[in-house]
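Entry 12.
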Amino acid sequence: MDVLTQPPSSAASATAVRSVAVVGATGYAGAELCGLVAAHPEMRLASAMSARAEGGERAATRPGEVDVTAYDPDVFADVDGVFVCAPHGASAPAVLAALAAGARVVDLSADFRLSDPSVYASAYGAPHPAPERLADAVYGLTEHARERVAAARLVANPGCYPTSILTPLLPLYDAGLVARDTLVVADSKSGVSGAGKAPNERTHFGNVHDNFLAYGVGTHRHTPEIHEHAGTRAIRFVPHLLPVFRGILSTIYVQPVAGTCADDVRDALAQRYADEAFVRVLDAGATPQLANVQRTNRCDLAVCDADGVVVILSAIDNLVKGAAGQALQNMNLMLGLDEAAALPGAKGLPGSRTLPASNVSAGPEDASCAS
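Predicted 3D structure (tokens):
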């Protein structure tokens, strides 16, 4: 059996606390992961390190922060799992070092999300740093790859925008309710944390506050990821920058096959995700909002009819379900732990589609959303 796809050993299936390291712990996703691991009943943060060997150390100065040390790959030999939260290109060396040390790895960068190194080179402007490992990586959209994730040594954590778009679309493609050659428009809005912690002119407070803009139209790096894992190039993805810190709301316009209406689409999604802890399909008339998913690992979905066009609304926290939370969900599986351990936002009852009234966005403007 290949070492990169073997299941956890019997020792790893016992109840002993697993130790993990986070590389890139000074970034938004890395810091979020450190906080989630700190609350985990069966996981210990053995090391929080910078992605840099020099100059990346940081002492904790705020509640909830941890001390961050310089990058040290020697640590990998003493842990069960490694989360790599480095930028694309810089992530692959840490991934390879962790794999060589025998650890299971969840990579939050884009380095292992695309199967074709030429597509990676086109999207990210540089040759792929480890093309020989691409075939080993499992794309970790957890609800659609659970068994493969559990057996994997290397999981490529999906991007935040793709998570919000693929979660509602994949069941519809699989059920034949939307043809893969039919045009789909994904109009997505994200908070500024999705751009990462490194400052730039577009995410400067003075340019984000009281502002709203589209960016990367037709060129965003998540586009080829969405196309590959949806199995179609018929999706037009348009990202926007919201003047908020966290959260993504994707509005997805689809034309289902003849004879299929919004109710059919909603029912299909509800059936597919009925037993999933972190995907909630709202009743007709309710629409998701960022406030209901922020700081949770949940994806909230709603389906509406707009004069024969089916509109799907998908809301996630880009730092949790779109990054650190899904990474921990995947690592839980890889280490033989409860998939939902230490993750906020699980549904109270399997199959529940109804939100408490106080959490439903349903005013006069929303009422027409029901089909």
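Annotation: The two ends are 51 Å apart (CA to CA). The chain has two domains: 18-157+323-334, 160-319+347-369.
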